[in-house]
Amino acid sequence: MTRFQRLAVATTTATFVLIAVGGLVRATDSGLGCPDWPRCFGKLTPPPNLHAWIEHSHRLVAAVVIVLVALTAIAAWRTRQPRAIRWAAIGAVAMVVAQAVLGAIVVWAKLEAESVTLHLATALALVALMEFIAFRSRWGRRGSGGTPRFARLAMGGAALVYAQMLVGSTVTGHDAGLAYPAGTLIPDLGLSSAQIQFAHRLLATLVGVAVVAIWLRARATQRAHPTVTRLAGYAAGLVVVQIALGIANVADRLDALTVVPHLAVGSLLWGTMFALVLHADRFAGTAERDPGEPAPAPARTARESLTAYFLLTKPRIIELLLITTVPTMFLAERGVPSPWLILTTLFGGSLSAASANVINCYLDRDIDSAMRRTRRRPLPAHQVDPVDALRFGLVLGVAGFVWLWTTVNLLSAVLATAAILFYVFVYTLGLKRRTAQNIVIGGAAGAVPVLVGWTAVTGRIELPALVLFAIIFYWTPPHFWALSLRYREDYQAAGVPMLPVVRGPKETSHQILYYTLLLVAVTLLMYPAGQMGLVYLVAALLLGGLFVWRALALTRDVSGKRAIKLFSFSNQYLALLFLAMAIDAVLHVQG
Fold it and tell me: Distance (Å, rounded) from C-alpha 32 to C-alpha 16?
């Protein structure tokens, strides 16, 4: 990268920082922290006042951006850059001067909504112009001059994002951020503030659908150009985070901790979409790859791509986790919880569980390709690029945390995210390939959803929640060891030290029996700890007896057929036990 290119990138980055600092100014109501311009209370340095210093910091960053833009223009002419770059640099100088004047007008007009929106519009346009300069100085234009379908689609998506940013600024300028609650779909549109907020949410939905559609289209038609597909993937991830932060804005009543990231991520989304437009246009009319770029993967339809990403989340495991979460919420409520709370908890929990599963697929793709049971998963089957899978998993994790924090509570969000980290770092990276006790310790991650469900209702961890955690913890070894007995050869081929591989089938069947007995004992502890009734007690005894009987049968016949039957029953056992728990909790209240 040449010096001029580094300067252009630095100026673009500084402009992003300027927008983020501007968001901090608005979020903290510091727009008039310095009521005059260009001075602050008649002086060059502000008084010892927080709002004055926040506003002054915005002006200092703006001054840095002005200097960088001017240096970029000078360097463009001195290094004899192509004509398009030189005139774009002159345009950037004019634009940054206009931006400074608009900043003064915003202060003189006492934060009048239209001037604030125009100020942001100019800043976003400056970002795009600087991106254009940085891009053309490095790559130039290599297309045929035409504008193919995907490039037009990317332009339309970028235009929607730009419009959404300006509508969002209008919402802020008219104090319409809290015009109506997040859970209200259609508000009373008699109020102008509600109309603006409603338009903002409608456009946000449209932007989300459009950006995700562009990403899917890129994966289907632009596989020859990995830069294009990566940028489209980044945009899809950013739009999910942006929508989640928008919900957080309302839930936290426009707290600066969510307002500033909301504007920063929105600006980054705009910059990513504009970069996508530049790169899509760069390849217009040509199917050539850059030297060194990997060969394209086979094209797939949008439906095939969606299916592959869905399967990465291991939906059957998520379903099992949700089966335990809902009854836990019934027990914590001692009745029927709010349907909205159930839905938001399930959605956030699903995002977090999916994140852990996707990252696990990414880390274990070499193992999966060596095992017959898993070699058809999306990564071993080369249906999803590994980097895209990792990015998808990280986005799901962030989205799950933000969603649970804003719609449920912070404790539930922290617990769900802690489960992701435990599953990834302790189980997948630390234990799975090193010890036969991997599933015993690692099973704690699968027990966290009951804590999430309990804290979603009560806001704290209590004794019954810990007993529920123990139930899942002791259920996991017999459940998973039964499966690993059936596929012992697979784990042996992959070099994973599962108990049947290390200790043999007979010892594994004995360990399954021991843990089943412990599991039944722990389920009976729930009777006094959770103040359960006869419905739960009878169910725990009957289901526990059946589990022990089947575990005993496995010690006499350790065939794969018997093992897989025990594995299937263990799923039914857990679902029926927690169902009985929920029924008991409701009947207890009615009685």
Answer: 22
In the numeric block, the tokens 């689609």 are attached to: 153
- Judged by DSSP in three states, 43 sits in strand
Q: Which long-range contacts (CB under 8 A, 24 or more apart) does 537-540 make?
A: 539/576, 539/577, 539/580, 539/581, 539/584, 540/577, 540/580
43 strand-pairing partners: 40
Q: How far is CA 21 from CA 17, 57, 163, 203, 271, in A?
A: 6, 8, 21, 25, 17
pTM above 0.85, yes or no: no
The letter for the amino acid at 320 is L
Which amino acid appears at position 154 of this protein? A
Measured from the Cβ of residue 499, the count of other Cβ atoms closer than 10 Å reads 25
Cα distance between residue 289 and residue 98, in whole Å: 40
For 210-260, what is each residue's pLDDT tens digit?
Answer: 898 898 888 888 878 888 888 998 898 888 888 887 777 777 666 777 777
Please name which of 539, 318, 291, 531 lies closest in space to residue 416, comparing C-alpha atoms. Answer: 318
Angle, helices 315-333 vs 444-458, to 10°: value is 40
Distances (CA, A) of 333 to 413, 433, 465, 585: 19, 40, 12, 8
Burial pattern 555-585, b for ≥16 Cβ within 10 A else e, equals eeebeeebbebbbebbeebbeebbebbbbbb
Say how many C-beta atoms besides its own lie within 10 A of residue 289's C-beta. Answer: 14
Contact between residue 522 and residue 556 where contact means Cβ atoms under 8 Å apart: no
C-alpha to C-alpha distances, 396 to 78, 116, 281, 321, 545, nearest whole angstrom: 47, 33, 30, 16, 39
C-alpha to C-alpha distances, 145 to 151, 219, 291, nearest whole angstrom:
12, 23, 21
| Exposure of 396 in the CB half-sphere (CA atoms within 13 A) | 25
Query: How deeply is 429 buried, as exposed, middle or buried, from its count of CB atoms within 10 A (0-12, 13-18, 19+)?
Result: middle
Q: What is the pLDDT of residues 34-69, one digit of tens each?
A: 777 777 777 777 788 877 878 778 788 888 999 999
The burial of 89, by beta-carbon neighbours within 10 Å (0-12 exposed, 13-18 middle, 19 or more buried), is given as buried
8 Å CB contact between 465 and 480: no
Contact between 167 and 198 (Cβ < 8 Å): no
| CA proximity to 575, closest of 323, 377, 343, 395 | 323
Element (H, E) at 185: none
Report yes or no: 454 and 464 within 8 Å, Cβ to Cβ: yes
Closest C-alpha among 164, 97, 103 to residue 126: 97
Q: Which residue did the predictor score with more confidence, 320 or 95?
A: 95
pLDDT, tens only, 541-562? 999 999 999 999 999 998 989 9
d(C-alpha 386, C-alpha 365), whole Å: 9
